[in-house]
Amino acid sequence: MDVKDFYYDLPKELIAQDPLSHRSSSRLLVLHRESGELEHRHFEELLDYLKPGDCLVLNNTRVIPARLFGERENTQAKIELLLLKRKEKDLWETLVKPGKKAKIGTRILFGEGLLTGEIVDVVEDGNRLIRFSYKGIFEEILDQLGQMPLPPYITHQLKDKNRYQTVYAKYDGSAAAPTAGLHFTPELLEHIRARGIQIAEVTLHVGLGTFRPVKAEQVQEHHMHSEFYQLDEKAAEIINETKRRGGRVVCVGTTSCRTVESAAAKLLEETAEGGQPVKFKEGEAVIGQPQSLQREQWVKACSGWTDIFIYPGYKFQVLDALITNFHLPESTLVMLVSALAGREQVLNAYETAVKEQYRFFSFGDAMLIV
Q1: Could you report the per-residue pLDDT of 320-329, keeping only the tens digit for each?
Q2: What is the pTM of this model?
């Protein structure tokens, strides 16, 4: 597959620069996979497509104010830093600008010395490992000095930094928001629960690798950067119970999708290596499965680093439907949604969204693939 096969033309004026005043007032383009039919709705109408017995999977990661502006010790030259991954307590993998002069041993001062960083290594893609020193609590200092790491295509200043967080964000660690979740309000989530739809929370700390341009010409030649994920016992049981009963697992965002599919792959890998086999039992027939072979387990609690790359040809193990935003042309995220709904149908949906003046990317409108 050629990367250029996932290109579409997007006018710059359709890139949303600001979040809407009300989270759930965004538009919702619904793509039906089997028929290719498209519906134009609003996100508040999401409940029309969810059924009792379904499960909604949310990524509860929290974006940290990961962009720091400092100066080199002695020279006072300006340096911009983006925190990517926490490797140890005070050791972070970072993106440094300008990078050429950011050599091992360079010391950088932030907030007039409130926070000090020293470059200790240069790693993959020229990223720098920086060890920080400070007095007090790192997270509190970061809240004081850091800025939200908005994507480069957003040029407007964000007035309320909470609008680049989901309302259910819990665990610090992301360099970018899981943006499909930005459309949810506490009220909408309550309505969803009241309808008999369970909610499973997982964690995947979003790194920049997800959003970096694909430089390879062939899709299969691209390598994803790894991101930390976690799926606990409670979420695993909700997902497994949903699948057992024939309900649908509806992932909110590509990060939730990649988390559950990574957990499923890990379970199958352990089975192949001689671990406990995937459990089956006699019982009522499940959609698509013979009565005599009802599967009992799709995922189990796990955590680790994943570089799963989902593109057309991939067979989904857990996900049944996806809520997502509109993604950049030729991105790995367009490839992921194409794996679910078919490249031609997805590109047709995107062309329709352009024609109908949908808002694109992080602060843009949403898409539901069922």
Answers
A1: 999 999 999 9
A2: 0.89
